[in-house]
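Q: What residues go here?
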């Protein structure tokens, strides 16, 4: 049976809504990314306190990742996504207006809770909707690629706006001082992008409630939720242990987490060394981060083409992650070099890492969704996200302990290349184990 290019009207409508939700959710993250550390230090937090704030965020995500994925499978995608938006709006408001660690650190923890709630429900909603409209053999990769591109594009746009807004308000000049005086110091120029992110999350909540319709579910009771969520978590862990393809996806996701941890930890210092000062290095890093997310968005949009040229999704993951590993090798090879050619080559390697990771993501998601059903889809996505976060955290510690120079970059490249080579041998097409969740 031939399929229409781009799918039927129902598929296209679901794709548009998924793209919009993805953009609206990740735009605030980009808005807050550039000014966040500077805002916290301007509020008087020491570097140790800033690290504690980020640790509160990461630990909250790690602790809640699986329970919130199970919650989405039990009570529905829309409710959990709306809850994520509400928590994030409140968290960003606390961070933007807070003046002490006792306000800011709980705000970071709340943001972690919102991040955990958002991990999976939108994608699970999209896949469920397309399957209901067009059957289990419907094309998923195109919509997933568009959603991933929208997420990366939103972060890139947010980084540029979030980094430029304080400057436009006259950071350290009269307009900035006027803003401080008008708000009694509660709102700083650096606070404005974060508050704008909170407002976008309010829009996100209203859009989710209006646009993400889903079939009625049985009324959720506290007893049912308490019984269903642990069952969904256990089923997700069993699925990861019992299915060879999903094990591969999880290990590959962990390898990608290692690459991202290395980039986030090593690039700011390298940018500062290149420009000669931390301040100008921060501006360069913001530009690089935005360019990286643009490359990730481009890679996501190219994912269907890469899969067609490679022959299937598994080969596409191999090719895409191989390209990312090559980018890390370029970064490692140029770390001790100087001059414009070396800087240009390093920038190209940086973009190649994000391009390859963006291209691999939709194919991995397509493979994952063909192995799970709707009863455990969000939990499976949470298991995948948890694998990336935990591996990335461990990799960050390892990279931070290594001596400066090529070695940290080469370690990350080796891990990512090992993840790519997992796909050199085709996975058996045996049926996936039965979900058996809530």
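A:
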């Amino acid at each position: 049976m031939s399929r229409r290019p781009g799918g039927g009207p129902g598929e296209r409508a679901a794709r548009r809504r998924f793209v919009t939700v993805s953009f609206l959710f990740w735009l605030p993250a980009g808005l807050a990314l550039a000014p966040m550390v500077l805002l916290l230090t301007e509020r008087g937090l020491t570097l140790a306190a800033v690290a504690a704030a980020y640790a509160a965020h990461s630990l909250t995500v790690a602790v809640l990742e699986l329970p919130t994925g199970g919650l989405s499978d039990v009570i529905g995608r829309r409710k959990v996504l709306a809850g994520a938006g509400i928590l994030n709006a409140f968290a960003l408001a606390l961070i933007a207006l807070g003046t002490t660690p006792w306000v800011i650190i709980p705000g970071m923890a709340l943001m972690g809770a919102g991040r955990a709630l958002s991990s999976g429900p939108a994608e699970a909603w999209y896949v469920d909707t397309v399957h209901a409209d067009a059957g289990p053999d419907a094309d998923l990769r195109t919509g997933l690629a568009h959603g991933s591109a929208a997420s990366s594009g939103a972060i890139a746009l947010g980084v540029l706006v979030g980094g430029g807004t304080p400057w436009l308000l006259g950071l350290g000049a009269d307009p900035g001082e006027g803003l401080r005086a008008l708000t009694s110091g509660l709102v700083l120029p650096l606070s404005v992008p974060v508050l704008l992110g909170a407002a976008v999350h309010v829009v996100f909540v209203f859009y989710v409630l209006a646009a993400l319709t889903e079939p009625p579910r049985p009324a959720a009771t506290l007893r049912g939720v308490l019984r269903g969520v642990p069952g969904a978590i256990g089923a997700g862990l069993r699925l990861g242990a019992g299915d060879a393809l999903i094990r591969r996806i999880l290990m590959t996701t962990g390898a990608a987490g290692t690459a991202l941890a290395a980039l986030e930890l090593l690039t700011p210092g390298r940018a500062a060394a290149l420009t000669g000062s931390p301040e100008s290095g921060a501006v360069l890093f913001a530009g690089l981060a935005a360019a990286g997310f643009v490359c990730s968005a481009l890679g996501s949009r190219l994912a269907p083409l890469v899969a067609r040229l490679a022959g299937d999704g598994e080969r596409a993951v191999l090719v895409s992650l191989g390209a990312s590993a090559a980018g890390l090798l370029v970064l490692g090879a140029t770390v001790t070099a100087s001059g414009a050619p070396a800087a240009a080559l390093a920038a190209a390697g940086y973009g190649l890492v994000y391009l390859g990771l963006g291209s691999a993501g939709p194919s991995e998601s397509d493979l994952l969704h063909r192995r799970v059903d709707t009863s455990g889809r969000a939990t499976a996505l949470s298991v995948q996200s948890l694998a990336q976060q935990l591996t990335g955290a461990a990799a960050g510690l390892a990279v931070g302990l290594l001596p400066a120079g090529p070695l940290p970059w080469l370690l990350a490249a080796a891990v990512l290349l090992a993840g790519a080579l997992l796909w050199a041998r085709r996975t058996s097409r045996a049926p996936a184990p039965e979900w058996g969740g809530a």
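A: Context that may help when evaluating the design: Confidence is low (pLDDT under 50) at residues 430-438. The chain has 16 helices and no strands.
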